[in-house]
Write a structure and sequence with these properties.
The chain is α/β, with parallel strands linked by helices. It folds into 2 domains: 3-227, P-loop containing nucleotide triphosphate hydrolases (Rossmann fold), CATH 3.40.50.300; 235-330, no CATH class. The chain contains 11 helices and 12 strands. It has helices at residues 3-10, 57-65, 87-90, 108-116, 125-131, 147-159, 177-192, 204-210, 257-264, 280-298, 326-330, and strands at 17-28, 31-42, 46-50, 72-77, 93-96, 165-169, 196-200, 213-218, 221-227, 240-245, 248-253, 271-276. The protein has a 6-stranded mixed β-sheet with strand order 5-6-7-3-8-9, with helices on both faces. The chain has a 3-stranded antiparallel β-sheet with strand order 2-1-4. The longest helix has 19 residues, at 280-298. The two termini are 41 Å apart. It is a peripheral membrane protein. Residues 19-244 form the ABC transporter domain.
């Protein structure tokens, strides 16, 4: 359990908290999908939940939406236990699921108008259609749309009611770059109106663009939580200097890359010299891989993260080996 997670276990939910989770657990038979996850989301905050496939992101969101019962722990969403939330509570939520449903013969505008009529103060239908990049498809029947276009309809349905809390589970899957940027503008406008947003995404640049804070989840555990510029700690953000000389390849992490580069280039620039500043994606992948290694060393049970029978990690490989010290590099 992380330090941030331990602190959340003991802290009482604050008045300005939209979501409060304490020791959240979910088991499917002998497989633990969530193992004591704890975090808070402040009102008006955009909070991104990151993790590889099977990490527990969607399970967490489904519990908070009231779609799935938890095995243990507590959860409060807008002051209500989601396992007991009624229709008035659900009307305060906006939900964008991972997959699109069939909508028959209705057009995009008809579908959104129907949903808008269910809310006391909906967003203008045409404004939402334009915001998700479907301005030219307002009169098209939903059954005729491509998969990516149907995905945009899902997003539009989630935001039409001006929700207090918006759940976005992989919202821009199938969007082209222009539509993604239009969606980002929509999310920023919702945030400016005070909407609280819980986002899961595989696009790390999307989290960096939109989130106030991010949490990394792996193996059913929260492995770190913090601001986009804080997660992973200062050490994870130390630049990496990489080069090659007659002795082979070298990598050095240093807080003073300029000084090291000046030393290395004093007698001519070495081959393949580059300075790499870790991105949010680099830091996230290393957090996930560290948790996977810890699970393997702990000898998890069959099917458990890191244990025998566990699925192979879906994250791409990340090499972070440091083989040379600053003093060795200058010698």
């Amino acid at each position: 359990m992380t330090t941030a997670e331990t602190a959340s276990e003991t802290a009482a939910p604050a008045a300005g908290t939209a979501v409060s989770v304490r020791g959240l657990q979910k088991a499917y038979g002998h497989v633990e999908a969530l193992r004591g996850v704890s975090f808070d989301i402040r009102r008006g905050e955009t909070f991104a939940l990151l993790g590889p496939n099977g990490a527990g992101k969607s399970t967490t969101i489904e519990i908070l939406e009231g779609y799935r019962d938890r095995t243990g722990g507590t959860a409060s969403v807008l002051g209500v236990d989601p396992q007991h939330g009624g229709l008035p509570w659900k009307a305060r939520l906006g939900i964008v699921l991972q997959s699109s449903g069939e909508s028959g013969q209705v057009t995009v505008r008809e579908q959104l108008s129907h949903f808008a009529a269910m809310y006391p103060n909906p967003r203008p239908v045409d404004e939402v259609i334009d915001a998700v990049g479907l301005g030219g498809k307002a009169k098209a029947r939903i059954k005729s749309l491509s998969g990516g276009q149907r995905r945009r309809v899902d997003v539009a349905l989630g935001v039409i009611g001006r929700p207090e809390l918006l759940f976005l589970d992989e919202p821009t899957t199938g969007f082209d770059p222009e539509a993604r940027h239009q969606f980002w503008d929509l999310i920023r406008s919702l945030k400016a109106e005070g909407t609280t947003i819980l986002l899961t995404t595989h696009y790390l640049d999307e989290a960096a663009q939109l989130a106030d804070r991010v949490a990394a989840i792996a193996g059913g555990r929260l492995v770190d939580i913090g601001g986009v510029d804080e997660i992973g700690g200062e050490e994870a953000r130390v630049p990496l200097v990489r080069w090659r000389d007659g002795r082979g390849p070298h990598e050095v992490r240093t807080t003073e890359p300029g000084t090291l580069v000046a030393s290395l280039t004093r007698d001519g620039e070495p081959r393949e010299l580059e300075v790499i500043r870790p991105s949010l994606e680099d830091i996230y992948l290393e957090l996930v891989r560290s948790e996977e290694r810890a699970g393997a060393e702990a000898g998890g049970g069959p099917g458990a993260p890191g244990g025998p029978g566990a699925p192979a990690p879906t994250s791409p490989a990340l090499t972070t080996t440091t083989t040379t010290t600053d003093s060795e590099a200058r010698s």
